[in-house]
Design goal:
Chitobiase, domain 2; TIM Barrel; 2 domains; eight-stranded parallel β-barrel; seven-stranded mixed beta sheet; 23 strands; globular
Length: 542
Amino acid sequence: MKKILFCGAIIVLIFAISPLLSAQVAIIPKPAKITILEGKFTLHKYTTLFFDQTNPELKRVIDLFRIFLKGPLGAEINYSPKKTESGYIELTLDSTVLNKDGYVLRVTPAKIEIKARSAAGAFYAFQTLRQMLPAEIENQTAVQKSWEIPAVEIEDSPRFEYRGFMLDVARHFQPVEVLKRYVDLLSFYKINNLHLHLTDDQGWRIEIKKYPKLQQISAWRKESMVGHSEDKPRKYDGIRHGGYYSQEQLKDLVSYAQEHFITIIPEIELPGHSTAALAAYPELTCFPRTFEVTPDYGVFEDVYCTRESTFTFLEDVLSEVVEIFPGRMIHIGGDECPKTRWKTCPSCQQRIQQEKLKDENELQSYFIKRIQKFLNGKGRNIIGWDEIMEGGLAPGATLMYWRTWLGDKHIAEAARADFKIIMSPLDPLYFNLYENEERVITPLAYPGLIPLNKVYNYNPVPVQLTGKDAQNIIGVQANLWSEYVTDGQSAEYMTFPRACALAEIGWSSDESKNYDDFIRRLKINTKHLDELHVNYSKYFLK
């Protein structure tokens, strides 16, 4: 007992006599286990790197770290063919590290040792090191002879394999530079999936070479709504808006994200939210007429028909999509699809009879299963919003749960049926809702309030689930829909620091979470965001 008290006193003493040390150990997301040691490691241009240089993935991680340090140190730190007595960083792959994204980090005054099971774990270890360095290191023009890292020992691994963020670029197009900045910022907090909502009623953002009118027509609308969609009368700005990403731009983005251990997940919305595509190819709907890419927000009754020609179009589109995005999952939407047109469409009613379906809900299930089978044939799996459960769901699909008002019961049923589920509920993970009550200082947002503490305290695993069933909750994702998010600066404000809380939900155990401690770390950690000129909300500082 005396030994325990003595050790505890030493740790308290270290923090008491070294406030700078305490300030620098403000890691987000919170590591699984952290022990403060005495002293610090001094990083300078003579520091060497020792690792297996025949491993290209490890070299890629090391090179990113070297490039990051080159500006602050005024020179690149060098590789070493062998360990020196001190002043080096050693990185090794170790199969005893339990999780593929896990790592063990030990910093002493003499050296830094990193053990990881994979290159991804090594990357996350370096993000932890980066957060322990003074925030000024983010300023690439702030050259110093040396930088100090507190001595610590960390054993760390994530709670969930899927840690995601969705950016809606269909409602408001964002340049590639904004997407790459999101890759930088999300990976800093160990988020490993960036879901891009590429198509919707208000715009089509991906080049499909077989269907050029998707670029010429579907990617542009004549104007955008000003104010909330509930405003009467609605107002518009009269300014043409749009854009799309070429396949080469997206391949470059995918490559950039891979370097940061982020998977880009594309979403091609179907069978609903398809007005933009119908504006270019109206024959794809049940009752063809002239459509325009709409500036309005909502749910529209004209959706993809179930004719063979529609499936040909979608399979052609998805064939090009899978050539751009190598990740194993493709998001196919599936949400908010009205069945009104299908109920009176001769082709759809004939399909129901031919396939011996009960109703239009089962017709949607047929639609989803058919797309799923096609993508499975391409070596991919599908993700869909939780409406894809309606009418029955094919094995192998991953659900993305968003309809908070339905409660957790049907999600628990899906988990017990052995479906994989990503929790992404509107409340509290829709970041397009207001972040604080002082709306005058916030960009225009969707009505409703999702404060930081509500995000942080969310537990993605429903209380009804235990054991193997609970393991079918594979991750968590926040979404930023962009009806009212018009540019990168507004997007950053709505995203951060709520994305920091999201990171902790996805990485840290629920038992280890403490909101007061999170805010303490956040106040220190966001100094890095200050140096990176991130336009984050500072409401939590009040």
